[in-house]
Amino acid sequence: MNFFVVLNGKVLKNVALILIAAFFTAWFLFIENLAQIPVFSMKEGPKAIYKGEKNLALTFNIGWGDEKAEPILDTLKNENVKSATFFLSGSWAERHPDLVNRIVKEGFEIGMLGYNYIDYTEIEDARIAKDISKAQEVFKKLDVNEIKLLRAPTGHFDERTIKIAKRYGFTVVHWSLDSQDWQNPGVKKILENTSKADKGDIVLLHASDSAKQTAKALPQIIQAARQKNLKLVTVSEMISNGEAQSNEIR
Known about the structure:
The chain is α/β, with parallel strands linked by helices. It has nine helices and ten strands. The chain has helices spanning 2-35, 69-78, 90-95, 97-105, 125-141, 159-167, 187-194, 214-227, 235-240; strands at residues 47-51, 56-62, 85-88, 109-112, 149-150, 171-172, 177-178, 202-206, 232-233, 245-248. The strands form three sheets. Strands 2, 3, 4, 7, 8 and 9 form a six-stranded parallel β-sheet that branches. A two-stranded antiparallel ribbon has the order 1-10. A two-stranded parallel sheet has the order 5-6. β5, α6 and β6 (171-172) form a beta-alpha-beta unit. The longest helix is centred in the N-terminal third of the chain and has 34 residues, at 2-35. Residues 1-8 and 17-42 have low confidence and may be disordered.
């Protein structure tokens, strides 16, 4: 009889430990998801735009390469897309003034992706400022002077990044939907990743040479958006036509 009681005591102890662990895991996941819920905050403090109120914004990051940008531009032209936002690194723009000129001439918006591909959260303020300033000078030389949007080169940013960007007259823009096209998971997977696109979403795509499947997926992404009656706009148009949702960064 004593053996039976001891055995059950051990079982109960194990069950209790499992339940406690499960509770804390569930609580952690709940808090994590809660933090990701889109909320437009009116509190004071640095913020980054990651979603709008209506329409859909396709955004393309370009940091290197000279093969994939042109097919993307050709596809947008063939699909009669007049509005999209290209976030260009200064180093890339410096080497490809002809493509920068084409993006401008075809009426697309240009945002800045810093100068070098560096993680702003891992460097000091002075280096962040220098990277932004260096990119700014490149675009001025290319006669692209109305850039108001900045995306952190690696997508990682913090309160310091936003404050420094604001000092230079930029609004930091993130995204609400990641196509993950840079991983080259296959056209089907890219389409699956963008299938949830809805009103106000800012979609992350790439036109660097590392993204080898984006041009093939793009026509279907555009068609899917149109089937949902989503108007394709630039990020600036999205921001100006309604409330922009933002995350307060601490």
